[in-house]
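Cont'd.
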Amino acid sequence: MTLELRIVEKRVGAETHIHPTSVVMEDGSFNVLLGTTLAGKTTLMQLMAGIQKPTAGEIWFRGRNVTHVPVQKRNVSMVYQQFINYPNLSVFDNIASPLRVAGMDRKEIERRVGAAAELLRLAPMLQRRPSELSGGQQQRTAIARAVVKDSDLILLDEPLANLDYKLREELRDELPKLFAGRKAVVVYATTEPAEALLFGGNTATLHEGRITQFGGTAETYRNPHDLITAQVFSDPPINVTPVRKTATKLTVFGTVTWPAPKRLAKLPDGAYSLALRPHHVLPAGRAGAAGSFTGRVLVTEISGSESVIHVATPEGTWVSHSHGVHPFAIGAEARLHADLDHALFFDSTGARVM
Amino acid sequence: MRKTVNQKAWFLVLPVFLLVAFNALIPLMTVVNYSVQETFGDNVFTWAGVRWFEEVLRSDNFWNALQRQLLFTGLVLAIEIPLGLAIALTMPKKGFWVSVCLVLMSLPLLIPWNVVGAMWNIMALPEIGLLGKAINSLGINYNYTRQPVSAWFTLVLMDVWHWTSLVALLCYAGLVSIPDAYYQAAKVDGARRWAVFRYIQLPKLRHVLTIAVLLRFMDSFMIYTEPQVMTGGGPGSATTFLSIDLVKKGIGQFDLGPAAAMSIIYFLIILALSWLFYTLMMRNQEN
């Protein structure tokens, strides 16, 4: 184990930014912090780096208590959402800056900067200034600065958020390769569930200053332990409705009754929340079948080969995300099919029961 | 494809054209008119060619005033720019004291120029003024109406008091606009305070500093009111700057031709030097 937060808490005045949190991240692992804006991703990273000090709790790194060790002495590097480079230094000098601060000799600096530039395809523009580069190249420079020294901890705070779509995809492909085979603990903050799924590794879902769940990315996605985790880790947003289970029947939206799937046999009768990801709600089905319901169409977003249909139900908007083009007139009644085999059930406290 | 031409658009430009015409072009052309003609009043003009220009460029008064002007502006810039920057760097970035600082800093800028002159005039009086009396009681012989050095000292001090705030406020605005992430990144790199200033703050402030230098250069090069109220250009002609010399010529002696010629030369000097400053500071940035 290497990076360990032990009941770390951060309060600023009367506000609690990070509730007591414990988490362990291994050497060489890629860890995604997933959460909306203000969920506490940046604060958590700054605590890990030592830019902020926790109000309570301890931070351990490779068996050493580093809670009070300032960031300069921790061998950390960080990449931000904004493209942060020294404006009047060339790309070469920018990448070299952490090595120069560390007092490395010239030959070694040149070798390392060359390698980092090669890796990030910056070799042809080493003599340029950041202002002469495109946004993507500026961010590559910042990333090169982060990887050029052998940091123990590399923090990336929404590094792709300010890039346009194409460049974002390009860098998104390259980033995991860049960190593969390194000994460092890599932490990557993002607001996008899709990004977490693409990167794999581990994911911690954050909500209002708490880590709701931490584990393998695919596992966290498929097996959320509570409703909030399921909500944070779903885009488009996961569909939720109160459901009442009585013997072999499920009543949803107040009026619609479905036969309960067999796997629910052991679930005691009572009130629950049913959550279903949009790609398990498809425009199909016939009246009376299990999982079938209707709703008034609010919006349809049709992109080439996929349809996203928003319908009004008595319990708020539900979203269906399906392959193929399914045009619906706005205001029309749409019949949708909820795939109950994939439905998640939560009790009144939000804990997963099935 | 044919473009539709709408001549009515000219009417929209008319107000700004009239404004510029009346407040810049017409006065300027009047000055040009005076500078190449001889007049004894009654609107009778005779052609004088470049005679007035020659006269101005041959006069010792002009060259002496220009030298004093350059020295004054040089001193003022050399003090106010670094001092303003230093003040901006030490000002708090958030909290209660921000507004206190901002109000205090803007006070000198709100005082009318002749009042600034009058204020310092009284304050620097060697017998009863707070500043004058204090300096004299230190054993330094100080009298700004008699000694050129004292007069210069007082004028420069007054200008620094009056205008450093402007530089400080400009720099402060520039500093506040640097995203926090830059400072964090520097901290992560282990950069020292000096490196943060040299590699983050200074480059990010370059535009603001260019504006500050230009504004202070132009304003101090045209300074009139304060020295006029304070010293009237004396003792002797020790603090007779270009503008004071110009007003003496134009309104005191009613030498309209030479005064007009001098105005144009004065204007061209400011234009040339401003262009020089701007180009130098901007080129620095590109390289």
